[in-house]
Specification:
about 120 residues, mainly alpha, Arc Repressor Mutant, subunit A, two-stranded parallel ribbon, 2 strands, about 55% helix, elongated
């Protein structure tokens, strides 16, 4: 699933909804009515977020990486995941490194945010 910047256009927005959308990963939140210039500016800004280096980070996760990601999102640590998957802790660390690299994140908080944006976690 590609990870793209999200721009939300709505006719029924309010501040709490806008805050939730941005926290969930939306790049911008525009409420109707809006001018053509506002829309064009927002779209250009969102498109400016897509760079070749980010495009390379949008690689698909393997089935094993998806399984490990779901376990991480459940709050399980490397040792517990290793035990559940009958793998070494070092192997799980390597998969975790690859997951984070592919998703373009540097820490677990960003990993959870990215997973929410991808629809993998409520």
């Amino acid at each position: 699933m590609p990870s793209l910047p999200v721009l939300i256009l709505t006719g029924y927005g309010d501040i709490p909804i806008a805050v939730r959308a941005v926290k969930a990963g939306a790049y911008n939140f525009i409420e109707k009515p809006f001018s053509r210039e506002t829309l064009v500016s927002a779209v250009k800004s969102v498109l400016g977020q897509i760079t070749p280096s980010k495009a390379l980070k949008r690689k698909s996760l393997t089935q094993t990486e998806m399984t490990i990601l779901r376990l991480i999102l459940q709050g399980r640590g490397n040792r517990e995941i290793a035990h559940l998957r009958s793998r070494s802790e070092r192997t799980i660390e390597w998969h975790r490194y690859n997951i984070m690299r592919k998703l373009g994140v540097n820490n677990v908080v960003d990993l959870v945010k990215k997973a929410i944006a991808m629809g993998l976690k409520d």
